[in-house]
Amino acid sequence: MKVNNAEFIISAVRPDQYPEDGLPEVALAGRSNVGKSSMTNRLINRKNLARTSATPGKTQHLNYYLINEMLYFVDFPGYGYAKVSKSQREAWGKMIERYLLEREPLKLVLLVIDLRHAPSKDDIMMYDWLKYYDCNICVVATKADKIPRSKWDKHVKIVKQDLGFVPEDDFVMFSSETGLGKEELWSIIERHAFATDEDELEEEEMESLSASEENSDNHHEHEEDDIPSQ
């Protein structure tokens, strides 16, 4: 997507503060200092629209950014910062849980993870949480430029294994420095954000058909197992 216009709209803490125009929303989740702001700025070709807080863990709002007047990026508070109080973490959790449960315009969640390191317990918990709420997920592994290309596959494998990553979710290696993965990520965002009801129905039918074929194959395998040896 060519971004011609991007603007900050609101820092929301309650549903009555969320935009009511019905535009699709793409949420961004990740630990503090993982590079969400840099990724956002690279995606929208701006240097400082999404600003990094001077104090990690300080922001406890949902920051709405309107892109091309077509969709919103919704930046979640960064998690996993040690100095955030227990009460702050609980308040954050309730806000995010309510958003994931009730926010109809939500089309996709980008789970941003540092490719250089194995996923943290909070990363794994967030992935499990998003799966529990049946969200569409794209794992974005940032800072790929910090790793030699020859080691990319090794690091991707570690991230996927530790998360318990499932193939139906999307996965993109990304670099805010070089722009690696930018076009691929935009393609995924657009596919989810602007999918029609017919597209979603067709995708559900394909998944159902695939599951049916898999069950049929398993049934035949069991039948063959039951054939007595001569």
- Approximately how much beta-strand content do the residues carry? 15-25%
Rg over CA atoms, rounded to whole Å, is: 20 Å
Give the low-pLDDT segments. 53-57, 222-230
The count of strands amounts to: 7
The shape is globular
Helix content: 25-40%
Strand order of the largest sheet: 1-3-4-2-5-6-7
What order do the SSEs take from the amino end to the carboxyl end, as H and E?
A: EEHEEHEHEHEHH
Which structural class fits the helix and strand makeup? Answer: alpha/beta
The helix count comes to 6
Mean of the pLDDT scores? 85
Q: Main sheet?
A: 7 strands, mixed
Span between termini: 63 Å
Question: What keywords describe this structure?
Answer:
single chain; 230 residues; alpha/beta; seven-stranded mixed sheet; 6 helices
Structure summary:
It contains 6 helices and 7 strands; from the N terminus they run ββαββαβαβαβαα.
Report on this model:
By secondary structure, this protein is of the alpha/beta class. It has helices spanning 36-43, 86-102, 121-132, 152-163, 182-193, 197-226, and strands spanning 6-12, 25-30, 62-67, 71-75, 106-114, 137-142, 170-173. A seven-stranded mixed β-sheet has the order 1-3-4-2-5-6-7, with helices on both faces. A hairpin with a 3-residue loop joins strand 3 (62-67) and strand 4. It is globular and about 50 Å long. 30% of the residues are buried.
